[in-house]
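Input chain follows. Return structure tokens only.
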Amino acid sequence: MSGGPILFVDDAAGPTELLAELLRSSTGSPVATFSSVEGFLAAPIEPWSVAIVDMSFRGSQLNGADVLLRLHREAPNVGRLVYSQGDDWVADLLRDTWEAIPIQAVLSKGVTATAFVDVVRRVLAGERSIVDPVLAPLLPASPSPWRTLDGYGRLVVHAGHAKLWQALIDAPTEPSYRELGSATGLSVNSVRNYRDQLLAELRLHGLDAGKMRHMHVFARRCRPFLAPFIAAKLGPPADRGQPAARW
């Protein structure tokens, strides 16, 4: 008997198709696969019961948080299972997403096919709080109440903050204050002042030093969570006109 349709978003196309076929034969559920976040975002939402989502996608600025955020907003009843290699460089993104979005299960790509199918079955059955012991050390024992989706709004209080964050997101490498001023149309002093205004909130996100290089990494990693608040202050990207400078 089918447990409901399954969504699988992962850029490892070969292994994904093999696992998708295993799920079809093991659970009787139809499985829709996407090898890119862009492809998923362009497709309509279907009545999936479970979504299996990788966190990192090679060659794309988008990531698994974009997928999970859309599902959270448009299909809140879908069981969400993060399926990740758990590399060091994706650990912070995994923690950010875990704290911001309800996730029912976190599973390492190192598990056996049998264990993979078992966890998917458990999520289909409505089980929650399934965490692979391999990935458990990457996640907080108790999610911070300050790092919810709404909490990111405290980092974008006004349009000046929004301009600063958008410039940091757009910058491919750590920018200087002068480059940020050029990109935003703000004075260097304004950029410094806005950064200083954010220090207390940044500490709640683990950025104790609040150095610009740390803000740059944080901005690009947490782009999916910051973007709605930036758009609320600046308007949709298509309506903003040309930036003051290009990187």
